[in-house]
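Need tokens for this chain, all 227 residues.
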Amino acid sequence: MTHIRKEGTIIQLSSRQLELIELVKKHAPVTGEQLAEYLGVSRPTLRSDLSLLVMLGMLDAKPKVGYFLGNTFRASHEPLQRFNSMKVREVQGVPVNIPDSLSVHDAVITLFMENADTLLVVNEDKRFAGIVTPKDLLKITLGNAGAASIPVSMVMTRYPNIVTLAPDETVMDAIRKMSQHQVDCLPVLMPSADSSQNPVVAGWVSKSNLIALLSDIATARELGEPE
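Here are the structure tokens for all 227 residues:
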């Protein structure tokens, strides 16, 4: 069952009503006789289902033309369709960059001050050099009295041994990479015209960014409103 909110009332759609919506989505415009044929039932059998779906705005109908998707259906599905085609460049955030000469001590302070999942490290040319995670900093500082003065270049994971994103990849690509590699943050990089130089940091996509984005989409779908 799928729940549809209509003027404060929650209406449950049956499996046949959902199937009707999918058939109209696939074949629109389609007549009632054609829908009955697809489902192997008589036209009168579908009359009440089709009337309800039209009333809810899930379907619309034109005489001598047939049924097609209604405004309510398009509005309630628009956020999800938008998400499926969304590019990384549309959701990437401003990263917390630190120089590779920064000390581990200062990196720890930056991590907490910025409330960051990961720190992106850049070299003296402001190009991407690597990443430092809380786990990296914890490993180097535990039981090591002199760790605070060590530069982050000694403890970071170096590029290109890092999972990254390009601005034109999709948000779904970002989710798959995060899941596959078990990471909380992915740097977004712009390739350099000079292959001998490291890429430039364009932004980052973090797990918290994606959770907030999915929450917004879920809320939009629940309210039946387009983004």
